[in-house]
Design the sequence.
């Protein structure tokens, strides 16, 4: 695990009703005055698109908790189409951190955009991004529309399925993932469930059951449960009708399988370690030598952790795309819980 | 269990060890405790090991399975749950490294683990012992039928720690003995330097960028300096070091491996054969010094008492386990010539030593001066030649030195250094060298291991030096601990009109 970051603001600037040129001048001026001896080593541009101040603050906080794992420029766009007068308020801050002895530099640009310019956010991105680097656009509020020009400006699109999550969104998300490189933070957060459940079949006594999975039982909020179900049925080539979904506060998945007349279950579910830390525990209901139990401690800050993971990736996630396609069929089946039925978050 | 697990797809499991047993000879030793077990634990925590993984420790020390497991758990302060679960599979066999009884017990344990854990007959034998027993262990493995897989679908591999022999003759002898039981493709010779991320980055820098390779030759490069410096002394390894010395311990392996990566031609593909073929070709191009040239081209030294990092430290001859009249070298500097089209006429200066001012490993490419400098000497007083420095450790990165105008009315040009630090750009955790190499051995990727012909060529390069030094009664050059080596090392470059960098 990377060591904690010592960090601080090196310099900042703010202005109301500004032009983008002033923001760029401010950035250059701050760098020139404050960091003339520092060489910047950037790997990405991260753009956050939020619908309000609170949302933007939460997302920026996650980026900061990321431990400045992805040095570069972070641009937060707060889009307020109905606010007047039209214009842009800007804040620019330079941060210097030391991570495991290495100086790491990053720049935060926060733009509150009111009125007409909110329809042209992509025109703000191009001048602000560092050249030649990937542009990750994180739609903090939800799924972008099919013709959102910001999607076109993005090298990778980041969303968090927990912010949307009904059947309509599954189809829209699957469509977007078919066209663009999209990473869902919720899908990433489910990695420990997927990893541990897959590991249950890595012992010889359990492997034959993989070909005999009859039922996929998922629990949890609407989006993670449909994703887990979509993942299992797409990987195991099962019909959507093999899925049973039940609302719950935390995600879990159980595969019910048969082999040689014997039935066994393989489960991955959220729990608590002795000290109370959240964990994912997986267990196979088999006798030795197929029996196995494993657990993983979940990240303290799952959003920041998931963001850190997706920002290291560049290519399309084929497994996610296939899970989404399967999820469309699962979410479309009658009798399944809808987003409105989701239980309150824990 | 050969069918793929479709649930693993998309989970970054392309580099995941298959079910196997790691048999560690020398399991009660320092290397196992300090390096191998922490590396295995990290792999387990990263879910790189199969749940059907087991380790069998073999050593002379009497120990039960439970005691061995307790020792394994002690080696890692906060082990992951995945590691704790795997340690339950671990077994221990006590006995002589060449005794039939030991290997009969071992065979029985391996068979039991195949049945209980599902390790599928796959074995990686790891020699973490003193080199004297390599030959005996491999011969006994062969005699007991443990050196070859019982089924075509399983594998048996052998990992050997350096040193591979003490000289060319003993290395050839060792290879012959090992090849009596194992085929070359089963043998994984470790030089942990190659497991370092930044050593591999030399390949990335050279062959993934269009801008460096065109100038990576005699037309643009004036000379190259390779420094492998340690600030530590021999510590508790005095007895071992007396039999090794810097030439065997560092130059013959680490230095020549770094040199080969710097010299080599672009491989057709970055796979085991492509890389290792080119490294061997590069090593073959190194001009083996004639015996008469050794005293001119090579400097050996030994450290005296001095100050390192603010502490007074003893001289080599005062260290524990060291002969007070020792002639073992703790420092080597060499001027090497390369006989090929790319590098003809470009000297490679290498130096390595203990008790130097700081721990640093770097390759510095110093470029030729511009053909015509359109400035006066006064304007370019602060200008040095361009240099590209690949820092391998610590603070891994790249520095480029170039000339820039000093701001102001006058036209003055001076050298500036642009630094790139891997740590400041990529903050992902870097796997430890042993973590990488152990996984490679289990996965079956020999790219970062050394092939027999590489070892032989490396010994061939140092052979005349060993021969000359074995008969040479000339006093060793002395250097105070905390300095960059003896004065003679400076003269090696001064006579070419150059000087060592200050890394």
Sequence:
């Amino acid at each position: 695990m990377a060591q904690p970051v010592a960090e601080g603001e090196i310099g900042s600037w703010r202005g109301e009703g500004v032009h983008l040129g002033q923001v760029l001048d401010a950035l250059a001026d701050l760098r020139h005055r404050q960091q003339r001896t520092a060489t910047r080593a950037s790997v990405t541009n991260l753009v956050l698109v939020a619908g309000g101040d609170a949302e933007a603050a939460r997302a920026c906080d996650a980026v900061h908790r990321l431990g400045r794992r992805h040095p570069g420029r972070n641009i937060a766009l707060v889009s307020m189409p109905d606010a007047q007068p039209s214009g842009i308020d800007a804040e620019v801050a330079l941060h210097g951190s030391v991570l495991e002895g290495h100086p790491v530099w990053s720049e935060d640009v926060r733009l509150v955009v009111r009125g007409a310019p909110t329809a042209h956010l992509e025109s703000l991105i191009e001048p602000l991004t560092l050249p030649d680097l990937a542009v990750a656009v994180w739609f903090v509020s939800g799924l972008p529309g099919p013709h959102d020009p910001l999607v076109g400006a993005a090298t990778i699109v980041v969303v968090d399925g927990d912010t949307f999550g009904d059947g309509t969104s599954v189809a829209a998300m699957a469509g977007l993932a078919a066209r663009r490189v999209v990473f869902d933070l919720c899908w990433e957060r489910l990695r420990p469930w997927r990893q541990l459940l897959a590991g249950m079949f890595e012992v010889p006594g359990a492997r034959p059951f993989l070909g005999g999975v009859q039922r996929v039982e998922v629990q949890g909020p609407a989006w993670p449960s449909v994703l887990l179900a979509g993942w299992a049925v797409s990987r195991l080539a099962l019909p959507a009708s093999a899925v049973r979904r039940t609302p719950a506060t935390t995600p879990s998945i159980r595969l019910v399988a048969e082999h040689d007349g014997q039935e066994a279950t393989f489960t991955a579910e959220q729990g608590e370690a002795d000290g109370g830390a959240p964990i994912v525990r997986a267990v196979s209901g088999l006798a030795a030598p197929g029996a196995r139990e494993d657990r993983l401690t979940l990240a303290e800050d799952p959003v920041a952790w998931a963001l850190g993971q997706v920002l290291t990736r560049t290519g399309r996630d084929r497994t996610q795309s296939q899970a989404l396609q399967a999820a469309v069929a699962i979410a479309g089946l009658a009798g399944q819980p809808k987003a409105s039925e989701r239980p309150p978050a824990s | 269990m050969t069918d793929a697990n479709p649930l693993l797809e998309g989970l970054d499991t392309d580099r995941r060890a298959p079910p196997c047993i790691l048999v560690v000879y020398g399991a009660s030793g320092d290397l196992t405790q300090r390096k191998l077990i922490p590396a295995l634990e990290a792999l387990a925590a990263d879910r790189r090991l199969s749940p059907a993984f087991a380790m069998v420790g073999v050593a002379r020390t009497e120990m039960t399975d439970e005691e061995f497991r307790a020792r394994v758990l002690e080696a890692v302060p906060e082990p992951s749950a995945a590691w704790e679960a795997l340690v339950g599979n671990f077994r221990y066999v006590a006995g002589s490294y060449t005794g039939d009884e030991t290997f009969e017990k071992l065979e029985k344990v391996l068979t039991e683990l195949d049945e209980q854990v599902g390790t599928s007959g796959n074995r990686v034998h790891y020699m973490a012992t003193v080199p004297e027993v390599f030959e005996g262990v491999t011969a006994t493995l062969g005699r007991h039928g443990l050196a070859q897989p019982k089924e075509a679908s399983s594998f048996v591999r052998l990992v050997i720690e350096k040193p591979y022999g003490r000289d060319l003759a003993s290395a050839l002898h060792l290879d012959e003995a090992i090849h009596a039981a194992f085929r070359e493709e089963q043998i994984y010779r470790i030089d942990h330097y190659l497991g370092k991320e930044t050593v591999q980055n030399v390949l990335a820098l050279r062959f993934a960028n269009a801008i460096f390779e065109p100038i990576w030759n005699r037309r643009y490069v004036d000379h190259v300096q390779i420094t492998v410096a340690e600030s530590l002394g021999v510590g508790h390894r005095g007895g071992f070091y007396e039999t090794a010395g810097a030439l065997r311990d560092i130059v013959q392996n680490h230095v020549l491996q770094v040199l080969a990566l710097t010299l080599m031609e672009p491989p057709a593909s970055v796979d085991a054969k492509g890389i290792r073929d080119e490294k061997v070709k590069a090593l073959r191009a190194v001009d083996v010094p004639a015996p008469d040239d050794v005293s001119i081209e090579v400097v050996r030294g030994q450290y005296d008492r001095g100050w390192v990092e603010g502490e007074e430290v003893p001289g080599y001859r005062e260290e524990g386990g060291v002969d007070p009249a020792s002639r073992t070298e703790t420092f080597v500097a060499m001027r090497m010539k390369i006989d090929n089209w790319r590098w003809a006429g470009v000297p490679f200066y290498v130096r390595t030593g203990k008790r130097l001012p700081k721990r640093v490993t770097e390759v510095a490419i110093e470029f030729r001066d511009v053909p015509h400098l359109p400035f006066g000497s006064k304007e370019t007083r602060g200008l040095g030649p361009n240099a590209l420095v690949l820092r391998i450790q610590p603070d891994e990165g790249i520095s480029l030195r170039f000339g820039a105008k000093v701001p102001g009315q006058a036209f003055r040009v001076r050298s500036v250094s642009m630094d790139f630090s891997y740590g400041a750009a990529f903050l992902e955790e870097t796997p430890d060298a042993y973590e990488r190499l152990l996984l490679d051995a289990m996965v079956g990727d020999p790219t970062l291991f050394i092939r027999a012909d590489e070892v032989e060529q490396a010994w061939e390069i140092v052979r005349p030096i060993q021969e000359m030094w074995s008969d040479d009664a000339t006093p060793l050059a002395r250097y105070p601990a905390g300095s960059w080596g003896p004065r003679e090392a400076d003269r090696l470059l001064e006579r070419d009109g150059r000087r060592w960098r200050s890394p």
Notes: Chain A touches chain B through 48 residues (CB under 8 Å). Chain A has a mean pLDDT of 84. Chain A has ten helices and 14 strands.
